[in-house]
Design goal:
heterodimer; A: 101 residues; mainly alpha; Helix Hairpins; B: mainly alpha; two-stranded antiparallel ribbon; 25 helices; 4% strand
């Protein structure tokens, strides 16, 4: 029997993997992937807890919104990464250490 | 006030006497090198002489004139500028002018070809001005100034030929030795000023003067509410005498005078006759009331010793001027003895007669030297023009010079019919009379003078016979026929004039008894000695017969060449020839001592004083190094440490901010976790 706890644990693992990717990866795209993982962990939590809202399915609805927003965010983020690459010829976040343009 | 009184003709004449040489000096200085003739100097001296005779005629045995104007005030004591005209200054003023004028005229010929003649006239005028000032002024302060000026002018004149090392050495010596005397004079002035609060000669030494009114009870010396221990009276007297000793070349300060012969001969005659050396005697007479019996005894014994010593040295000298120099010292010793026995009139009398015949002797010597020099240049020879061993038989060549010298020599030897006879016998007889009243061994003073008189006759005889008699030794020496000329006319005229003063007629109608001399009568005797009649006949007779015998011996020895011994190597001869080794003694003891002392102090300075300074310097440097180290390492270290600390801290902290986004995120996560943990635990 798959309980809520399993969902939460998977979600936590996903979040942690995402967090690790964000903190450790030397590639902006993989960081972006990490962010997506973390968003998806949150979405998984929303869906898992949405089971308890049988009347409105608020959890599921909010998950859909989140997925859409995440997709939009990925588009924006990829655009930024492209611009960064153009400017710095690198997408390693360590190389991008200047605040001024 | 005195200065509002109309100035009497006598005083204005005295001022003319004083200021004419000063004016000549200024004119000569302004004209510089163009002044070769010396006309202003000679004219000024002639004017001075005329004015001096006028002053003398009005003052001699007449009223004393003392006129002064205030000069400056120190505290409540006013110092004055003024002149005093009494018998003493009157006779001295005339004497200085009478001697100076012939010397000036003589110098016109004698110094004619000298390159520095413009300086010569300048110095000569200054010298005469200083000497006239010395005799005329009325206060010790002015007298001291004139005294110094005389010393300075003599320094210039002695060193006139300043390219000669000997002349430079001689004038330095004269100046230095005179400085010692000046110091004595100054101390004396200081003592008198402390006691009496005035330096006015009349107020101090006049008839009703402070010195005469001061009481000395053997313990203290009282004067108008002031008192000091009685010794100060003696010390003051000795101080003044010290000044006179240096100026008048008395033992032990006589050594400058023979060296002063390096100056031109005309200058020597002036210095030796009427001016410089007379200044000391004059000063002592001026302040005579000051001396107590101890000082007088000291003066008499120094005078007697000097007279004898100098005469014994003069016996063996070979330089014609040196002989005369020692003769001067010896005669000054006579004058000192006269002062020492309280016979100031006799001292001045001898000063005056001596001035004439000594000046004449020097001018004759100058004429001889002048002609010998002439000879040297004419025949291109090389010999010492002043050495009497080179002379001889000159009377054939220079008959007038010889005759005049002879008169002067007789006067110096003190033979009858001369002025020297009168004054020297005066001193001798007074000294014998004086010794009657002293304890037994003071008889040595008249005996010393007696012996000195005999020696004087010998050495002057030797000089005359060696120079003017016998054969001309230079001819024999050089195997050449030489012809010496007579001195120029204008050198002889002044000498004629002086010859008059060397004869008795000028001073007394009676050639044999000095007491009839008008000059002597012009000075009242401060200490009347009881007349011992026997001395008045025995002493002159004895001294003159001895003199004649001595001169005869000298004539046999030197004129006839019957000298008793061939070679002169005796101890006494060498003792006399080396001038009693005084120069050597002073060189060894004083000069060397001084040099050694200064060497010692130099070493001391080097080792100890410099050592201390250097050590303390080193110590300060050490200290400075230490504090520098402290400053650098501790104080700066503290400041720098703080700075470094914050720098390092900053460095460390900066390390965390290196623009790495992922670190920022990580740290944010940590802090978030910490906050969450803390928050969970606390709340």
């Amino acid at each position: 029997m798959i309980t809520l706890a399993h969902f939460v644990i998977v979600s936590a693992i996903l979040f942690s993997i995402g967090l690790y990717a964000v903190l450790a990866k030397k590639n902006a795209i993989l960081i972006l992937v990490g962010i997506e993982l973390m968003i998806n962990a949150a979405v998984l939590n929303l869906v898992a807890f949405g089971r308890y809202d049988g009347a409105l399915y608020g959890g599921q609805t909010f998950a859909l919104f989140a997925i859409v927003l995440a997709a939009a965010a990925v588009a924006v983020a990829l655009a930024i990464i492209l611009n960064v690459y153009k400017h710095y010829k690198s997408i390693d976040p360590d190389d991008i250490n200047e605040l001024k343009d | 006030m005195d200065h509002l009184n109309p100035i009497s003709p006598t005083v204005s004449a005295a001022l003319i006497v004083l200021l004419a040489p000063l004016l000549a000096f200024i004119i000569t200085v302004v004209s510089g090198k163009r002044m070769k003739s010396g006309l202003p100097a000679v004219l000024a001296m002639a004017i001075s002489l005329l004015a001096a005779i006028f002053v003398f005629a009005n003052i001699w045995n007449e009223e004393v004139i003392h006129q002064q104007i205030p000069w400056f005030t120190v505290g409540s004591n006013t110092f004055t500028l003024g002149i005093i005209l009494n018998n003493l200054s009157a006779i001295m003023v005339v004497l200085v002018c009478v001697i100076a004028l012939p010397v000036h005229i003589y110098s016109m010929v004698y110094m004619k070809d000298d390159g520095g003649i413009h300086r010569y006239w300048m110095y000569l005028s200054l010298f005469c001005f200083a000497m006239l000032g010395l005799v005329l002024v009325d206060s010790l302060l002015l007298m001291y100034m004139a005294w110094e000026l005389v010393g300075f002018a003599s320094y210039l004149l002695i060193g006139f030929w300043f390219t000669k090392t000997a002349a430079v050495k001689a004038n330095k010596k004269a100046f230095l030795i005179n400085r010692i005397g000046d110091l004595g004079f100054l101390i004396g002035i200081a003592i008198l000023y402390t006691q009496f609060h005035t330096l006015d000669l009349v107020a101090l030494f006049g008839e009703e003067g402070l010195v005469k009114q001061a009481i000395n009870d053997g313990n203290s010396w009282y004067s108008a509410g002031e008192s000091m221990p009685a010794e100060w009276l003696t010390i003051a007297g000795i101080s003044f005498f010290l000044g006179a000793m240096a100026k008048s070349a008395q033992f032990p300060f006589h050594i400058w005078l023979p060296d002063a012969m390096e100056g031109p001969t005309a200058v020597s005659s002036l210095i030796h006759a009427a001016t410089m050396v007379a200044a000391g005697v004059f000063m002592l007479v001026r302040i005579s009331p000051l001396f107590d019996s101890q000082v007088l005894l000291l003066i008499a014994s120094i005078g007697a010793f000097t007279a004898f010593m100098a005469a014994s040295i003069a016996l063996t000298q070979n330089d014609i001027k040196k002989i005369l120099a020692f003769s001067t010292i010896s005669q000054l010793g006579f004058m000192m003895v006269a002062i020492g026995i309280g016979q100031y009139g006799a001292a001045i009398f001898h000063l005056v007669t001596h001035a004439f015949f000594k000046c004449l002797l020097f001018l004759s010597a100058g004429a001889v030297i002048h002609e010998m020099h002439h000879l040297k240049e004419k025949y291109q020879l090389d010999f010492d023009a002043q050495d009497i061993r080179n002379m001889g038989g000159l009377r054939k060549f220079m008959p007038w010079t010889f005759r005049l010298t002879l008169v002067a020599a007789l006067a110096l030897a003190g033979l009858p019919l001369t002025a020297g006879y009168l004054s020297k016998d005066a001193i001798l007889i007074y000294t014998f009379e004086w010794s009657e009243w002293q304890s037994g061994y003071w008889k040595i003073v008249p005996i010393a003078l007696f012996v000195t008189s005999a020696l004087t006759a010998f050495y002057i005889g030797r000089l005359v016979f060696k120079v003017f008699f016998g054969k001309f030794r230079l001819e024999k020496l050089l195997q050449k026929h030489l012809h010496v000329q007579e001195a120029p006319k204008w050198m002889l005229y002044p000498m004629f004039f002086l010859t008059l003063g060397a004869l008795f007629a000028f001073f007394s109608y009676n050639p044999l008894v000095f007491e009839d001399a008008w000059l002597l009568k012009g000075f009242e005797l401060t200490e009347t000695l009881q007349r011992v009649n026997i001395y008045h006949t025995v002493v002159p007779a004895a001294i003159n017969s001895i003199s004649v015998v001595v001169i005869f011996i000298a004539w046999r020895w030197y004129a006839r060449g019957k000298y008793p011994v061939e070679k002169l190597t005796g101890v006494w001869y060498r003792f006399s020839e080396s001038q009693w080794y005084f120069n050597m003694l002073y060189d060894r003891v004083i000069v060397k001592g001084l040099i050694e002392t200064s060497r010692f102090f130099y070493a001391f300075d080097r080792a100890v004083v410099d050592g201390i300074v250097n050590r303390s310097g080193a110590m300060v440097r050490l200290l400075a190094n230490l504090s520098q180290w402290l400053d650098r390492n501790v104080v700066d270290g503290l400041v720098n440490g703080v700075g470094k600390l914050s720098f390092n801290l900053g460095g460390i902290l900066r390390g965390s901010r290196k623009g790495k986004v992922q670190y920022y995120l990580l740290s944010m996560l940590f802090f978030l976790l910490i906050v969450l943990l803390v928050g969970l635990n606390l709340f």
